[in-house]
Specification:
heterodimer, A: alpha/beta, Rossmann fold, six-stranded mixed sheet, four-stranded antiparallel sheet, 7 helices, 10 strands, B: alpha+beta, Alpha-Beta Plaits
């Protein structure tokens, strides 16, 4: 499903964010990518959504080689991969429902489908009745649920979450992780980028540990620094 | 079609939900257009001032005493029929003497000469106004017409010739200066519009990034800003019309009095050229907004 073959990313001759990364993530897996700050976790995520291109190597998602993806094709890739960010990245001047609908509207979905899907995903993430609230009128947990709902509208095969609990309290963080597990149970591959040991240990799933831009451990179990 | 409908909806939402930024942008546009219209008004007023001076210039043709009315009125009819002539006024011998004396009241030499003559030397006068100062040469040539040319005592034009030459030179200088001023104003206007659009897009930079991350194509992000720019241009042009036209109409009587003319033609100039003036301003503003939006957006679309 997701294959990284010998992927490196350098910003100039001295800064190597990733170096020779090889990964293979199967469909339906729940994978945690962990590591301390500056180990290349966010760079890896940026490469998966084509925010950046690898300096070397090959990235294949669902049979699509995105290593040399053209700018015009990037929107199509992003409509197939759901992404959730630590800072939610909601449009501040749009309501919760409009934020979710936006992801469908940019893809050219019909108004009828938008009207059907938005309430469905809002129900899945537990936000019924909050459709008309603006991001600033919602709590952090609610904003993150909106972001997850937005990531789900296209029924993506892959959901990438970049420190989704970073701005949340412990209880809300666990609620969000449970929501991600629920989504994973529906068959969606979830790639969770985090440095939160408690969350990773709670999941008891596959953990890929990065250090200095390379994969130093790939195992099932608890978060251990290599 | 669906994309256009959606992006128009987003543009209208953006305008309403960022109402203060929208108002600030429109206000900058209105000020820019008003400045340009002030320049246009100055151009019309300069023309009116020059016209006012030119209207006061005419050729006085004095006929020999005893010239028959047939010749006088024949000359008047002939001159009035010329396309270069805007008017011919007949002045009797007595009236001509009174006006001549009045005009040369400070010229002792001429007054003494009149006294020496002892009687009215004027046989009648035609005051000829030209449509254009360039036409005076043609009119002077027309005065050599054999049917009445020999009856002409003198022409009072040489004094004006120098004035006309000076006015022509002055007009050319004014027009050249106005052209430079218009160029500077246009450049300033372009810079102001470019900058206000840049500021507007800069405040939306994070939203642009988010739109891209959720799968919006570059055109889907660009279109609402382009539509906003067109709508801002339209509203700004409408507001400028609402300011400029009534102001021009209200100021016209005072300006006409100032320039000693019955009608300056300022409001009618705006009315007759409305499509060119305001349509052109709207088009220029809209095109500028589209270019500025596209250029400013490029930086934030690289997500």
């Amino acid at each position: 499903m997701i294959k990284l073959h010998n992927v490196s990313k350098s910003y100039d001759s001295n800064v190597h964010a990733l170096h020779g990364v090889n990964l293979h993530i199967e469909p339906g897996e729940f994978v945690s990518i962990v590591g301390q700050s500056g180990t290349g976790k966010t760079t890896l995520l940026r490469l998966l959504i084509a925010e950046e291109r690898p300096s070397k190597g090959k990235i294949v998602i669902g049979g699509w080689d995105i290593s040399t993806i053209k700018s015009a094709q990037v929107p199509f890739l992003r409509r197939q991969i759901g992404v959730v960010y630590q800072d939610f990245k909601l449009l501040p001047k749009k309501t919760a429902a409009e934020n979710i609908a936006f992801a469908l509207e940019v893809a050219g979905d019909a108004r009828r489908r938008v009207r059907e899907v938005v309430p469905q995903v809002m129900r899945i993430v537990g936000l019924e009745g909050k459709e008309r609230r603006y991001p600033h009128q919602m709590s952090g947990g609610e904003q993150q649920r909106v972001a997850i709902a937005r990531a789900l509208v296209h029924r993506p095969k892959v959901l990438v979450a970049d420190e989704p609990t970073g701005n949340l309290d412990t209880i809300t963080a666990h609620e969000i992780i449970d929501l991600l597990r629920k989504i994973n149970n529906f068959g969606t591959t979830v790639v969770l980028v985090t440095h939160d040991k408690t969350i990773v240990n709670h999941l008891k799933g596959r953990v890929i540990t990065l250090k200095d831009g390379t994969v130093v451990r790939d195992h099932v179990g608890n978060y251990t620094l290599a | 079609m669906r994309t256009l409908h959606r992006t128009t909806k987003f543009a209208l939402q953006n305008i309403w939900r960022n109402i203060w930024l929208s108002l600030a942008t429109v206000l900058v546009f209105v000020l820019t257009l008003t400045t340009i219209n002030i320049l246009i008004t100055l151009h019309v007023l300069t023309d009116a001032a020059i016209q006012s001076i030119e209207d006061q210039i005419d050729i006085s043709v004095y006929f020999k005493k005893g010239t028959s009315e047939d010749i006088l009125f024949g000359a008047q009819d002939y001159l009035a029929s010329l396309s270069q002539v805007s008017g011919v006024e007949y002045v009797s011998g007595e009236e001509a003497l009174r006006r001549f004396s009045e005009r040369h009241r400070y010229d002792e030499r001429i007054l003494q000469a009149l006294e020496v003559v002892g009687q009215n030397p004027f046989g009648g006068e035609l005051i000829i106004s030209a449509r254009n100062t360039d036409d005076f040469a043609f009119i002077l040539e027309a005065l050599k017409n054999p049917t009445f040319g020999s009856a002409i005592e003198s022409q009072d034009f040489s004094d004006h010739e120098r004035v006309i030459q000076r006015i022509d030179a002055f007009t050319q200088r004014v027009q050249f200066f106005a052209l430079i001023l218009a160029g500077i104003f246009a450049l300033i206007a372009v810079l102001i519009v470019l900058n206000s659009i840049r500021v507007s897009i800069y405040t939306h930079r994070e939203e642009i990034g988010i739109m891209k991350l959720v799968g919006a194509s570059n055109n889907f992000v660009r279109l609402p800003f382009i539509i906003e720019g067109i709508l801002f241009s339209f509203v700004a042009t409408a507001m400028t019309i609402a300011i400029v036209y009534p102001t021009a109409t209200a100021m016209e009587p005072q300006l006409a009095q100032f320039f000693e003319q019955q009608n300056i033609g300022l409001s009618s100039y705006y009315l007759q050229n409305a499509y060119w003036i305001f349509g052109g301003q709207f088009l220029a503003l809209a095109i500028l907004s589209i270019i500025a939006s596209s250029l400013a957006l490029n930086r934030y679309l690289r997500v």
